[in-house]
TrEMBL record:
Name the UniProt record assigns to this protein: Acyltransferase
Keywords: Membrane, Transmembrane, Transmembrane helix
Membrane-crossing segments per the record: 31-50
Domain of life from the UniProt record: Bacteria
Length: 54
């Protein structure tokens, strides 16, 4: 659940960041993808840490 939420938040965050910078559609898609991957990886790490702590 954490990973899915992190991916969605990352995609929205990246899209908004590119839109504020005045990027075109490809820029928005790339920023959304990169941020989604980065926050998704962070979400996996957090999930593993929580699982090991319990």
């Amino acid at each position: 659940m954490i990973v899915i939420a992190a991916v969605l938040i990352g995609a929205i965050w990246g899209y908004r960041k590119a839109a504020r910078a005045g990027g075109n559609g490809f820029d928005k898609a790339q920023y959304a993808a990169v941020h989604a991957i980065a926050l998704g990886a962070l979400g996996v790490i957090v999930t593993i840490l929580i699982d090991r702590a319990i």
